[in-house]
Amino acid sequence: MQFIDLAAQYQHLKNKIDARIHKVLDHGHYIMGPEVFELEEKLAEYVGVKHAITCANGTDALTLAMMALDIKEGDAVFCPTFTFFATAETIAFASATPVFVDSEESTFNICPIDLEKRIQRVIAEGKLVPKAIVSVDLFGLPANYPEIEKIAEKYNLKLIEDAAQGFGGSINNKKAGSFGDIATTSFFPAKPLGCYGDGGAIFTNNDEYAELIKSYRVHGKGTDKYDNVRVGVNSRLDTIQAAILLEKLAVFDEELISRNLAAKSYNKELPEHLIKPIIPDGYTSSWAQYTVRSTDREQTMEQYNKKNIPTMIYYRTCMHQQSAFEYLGNNNGDFPVAEKLSKEVFSLPMHGYLLDNKK
Ligand SMILES: *Cc1c(COP(=O)(O)O)cnc(C)c1O
């Protein structure tokens, strides 16, 4: 059994994906070919935003968002401590200061109550300029945007939705990728919508941010890439990856249905002693991971592994516990909920072809 069965998906889509790749080989526009723009249109339509801009990976997507929002040295940017490293890394890479926030125990996502406390603390200290919030749709479940958006507005903060795992999820039919000022996602192979290499995208309804990001991703281009009006980066999605994503996006909703069925079946069949993921009313998850909690995690995982069911731990180490962030001076015990989650969570296999395997 595979944790994420990319081979099963490829077998299902082989003819279509192969044909799309061959089209690219025939026309030879490997960088910024027509498939890139076709994909951007379809992504914007899918998410329900004005602009979708692809780039090289989900980490660059965050960096490009921060460049567009002019996040810089002296700025405080709030993000959950229980997340993948890139969320916090890109804040520090922008020379700003990551200010970590504890999690909500039931959803694993950033806790709006703790968020507001930490914002007030930064204001009271008066050393950093509170600038932005990066919220994460952890394991596929959108964060509590109704509350987070209120807080962003109250304290005049920009909001970035890190939907690297959330793509496909929704709140009251509003799709992940459409929250905040700018949202980002990743097409890393293991994400809900993955390509066959690295890839990412940025979503926004703001024309000015969209123009800036399109410029930043190609060396700060003006009218063309040899007219450079600002210092940017080189972060484009390969045309071949766009071609693969077009075929995967076409079946993505079917795969989401299948992921939801798999989650339902887990909810029903897993033993009582495991705490199952909670999806609040009106929310849907893309089930990037199906993550449970157990107070004797290692032993429980061992039992599954013996039955040839692979398990993974996302995440064993919170951001405030990472060596790279020691300089921030956080301590163990500062984020009790996230620390507890990091000791109890583990994830079971999840992909769009999981139930087919059982047949
Ligand atoms: C995967 C991931 C990223 C980074 O995406 P890459 O494409 O691997 O650079 C950022 N944030 C979160 C929450 C992720 O899970």
Q: What this model shows, in words?
A:
This protein has 359 residues and is an alpha/beta fold. It has 2 domains: 245 residues, Type I PLP-dependent aspartate aminotransferase-like (Major domain) (Aspartate Aminotransferase, domain 2, 3-Layer(aba) Sandwich), CATH 3.40.640; 107 residues, Aspartate Aminotransferase, domain 1 (Alpha-Beta Complex), CATH 3.90.1150. The strands form 3 sheets. It has a 7-stranded mixed beta sheet, sandwiched between helices. β6 and β7 form a beta hairpin. The radius of gyration is 20 Å and the shape is globular. Pyridoxal-5'-phosphate binds next to α3 and α4.
Main attributes of the structure:
single chain; 359 residues; alpha/beta; Aspartate Aminotransferase, domain 2; Aspartate Aminotransferase, domain 1; 2 domains; seven-stranded mixed beta sheet; three-stranded antiparallel beta sheet; globular; binds pyridoxal-5'-phosphate
